[in-house]
Amino acid sequence: MVLDMRPMLRGEVDRITVDYTLTPQQLDGVEFEGDAHVMGEVTDEAGYMRLTLTATVAYHTTCARCLDRVDGDFSVQLERTVAAEGTLTEEQLEENVDEYAVIENGTLDVDEAIREELLLSFPMRVLCSEECLGLCPKCGKPKRLGDCGCPTFEPDPRLAILKTLFDKNEEENQ
């Protein structure tokens, strides 16, 4: 969404509200259930302009431990100081790229900033619950369904030769 900032720059208004939908960028393994709902405002308090946005989107993905389907709502907040074009040096912008939103030609484009925040803030691994036990590494049965009967102790195959020595010693001592 491109906001017309000219009324605020002229001092006619001190608040611009934002309420729209945004198509989020697709992520591997995540299916968004439609567009993100973006709400917020740009405020001007004695020449200090501040952009505050909240984006919420419903999603589907799989649990990183048990591979069950996970449905949820993801929400992210974005806060930036709004600066008019030409008021910041290139060095200031490069050093503080995540702190400023720049008005260009009297308008402020907020789409790219909120898309980037959604992309960078979405968790890399999603769990169905913090207590998720995952899958049995032998048979693949979900551990939440109960014991599958697979052995829990797996000896290190590099030390298998030692077991034959112990077995040989036990046979000789009998």
How would you describe this protein?
It is a single chain. This protein is α+β, with helices and mostly antiparallel strands. It folds into two domains: 120 residues, no CATH class; 31 residues, no CATH class. It contains four helices and eight strands, in the order βαβββββαββαα. The strands form two sheets. Strands 2, 3, 4, 5, 6 and 7 form a six-stranded mixed beta sheet that branches. A two-stranded antiparallel ribbon has the order 1-8. The protein is elongated, with a radius of gyration of 28 Å. The N and C termini lie far apart (84 Å).
Q: What key attributes describe this structure?
A:
two-stranded antiparallel ribbon; 2 domains; single chain; alpha+beta
User: What would you report as the Rg, rounded to the nearest angstrom?
Assistant: 28 Å
SSE topology string: EHEEEEEHEEHH
Number of domains: 2
Give the N-to-C terminal Cα separation: 84 Å
The gross shape turns out to be elongated
Major beta sheet summary: 6 strands, mixed
Secondary-structure content class: alpha+beta
- Residue-averaged pLDDT: 88
Number of strands: 8
What's the total helix number? 4
Summarize the amount of helix as a percent range. 10-25%
Strand content: 35-45%
